[in-house]
Amino acid sequence: MPLTLALVAHDRMKPALAEWAARHAEELAPHALICTATTGGVLQDRNPDLNVTTVKSGPLGGDQQIGGMIAEGRVQGMIFFPDPLAPQAHDVDVKALLRIALVYDVPCAFSPATADLLVAGGLLRR
Ligand SMILES: O=C(CO)COP(=O)(O)O
């Protein structure tokens, strides 16, 4: 059954997320990908065949929108590459998104290596 997956990255990590998605394009193809606005644009440019829907940009409420979807049980996995070296104006929203993903035990990965392990562990074959 197709899943809804959240794919989000901070600016300097967007190329890494787009590359990760390209490497897994075949496995991601059947699933609905929900992205914050800028991430979704970069992802779709690099992977035009993927099924990408966007919410608002993270600093403008997009992280909160995805958090709301998680609370409603509408997201089955999240790949989020945060920038570990840059402060974020909307840090409280980022923390809230991570917290709500933990509350609902949504499988999450925060780096390419762990995202690879989620896929290898069968996330996309459920
Ligand atoms: O800020 C973000 C995640 O915290 C992502 O938002 P954008 O994809 O719009 O850059």
UniProtKB/TrEMBL annotation:
The record places the active site at D63 (proton donor/acceptor)
Reactions catalysed according to its record = dihydroxyacetone phosphate = methylglyoxal + phosphate
Query: What Gene3D superfamilies does the record tag this protein with?
Result: Methylglyoxal synthase-like domain (3.40.50.1380)
Q: Which annotated residues bind substrate?
A: H10, K14, S57, G58, H90
Going by the record, the broad EC class of this enzyme is lyase
InterPro entries, per database record: Methylgl_synth (IPR004363), Methylglyoxal_synth_AS (IPR018148), MGS-like_dom (IPR011607), MGS-like_dom_sf (IPR036914)
Does the record bear Lyase in its keywords? yes
What Enzyme Commission number(s) does the record list for this chain?
A: 4.2.3.3
Pfam families attached here? MGS
Entry-linked CDD domains: MGS
Q: Where is the MGS-like domain?
A: 1-126
Provide the alphabetized UniProt keywords: Lyase
Q: Which domain of life is it from?
A: Bacteria
SMART domains of this UniProt entry? MGS
Q: Its Gene Ontology molecular function terms?
A: methylglyoxal synthase activity
The record's comment on protein family reads:
Belongs to the methylglyoxal synthase family.
Describe its function: Catalyzes the formation of methylglyoxal from dihydroxyacetone phosphate.
The name under which this protein is listed is Methylglyoxal synthase
* Species whose genome carries this gene: Teichococcus aerophilus
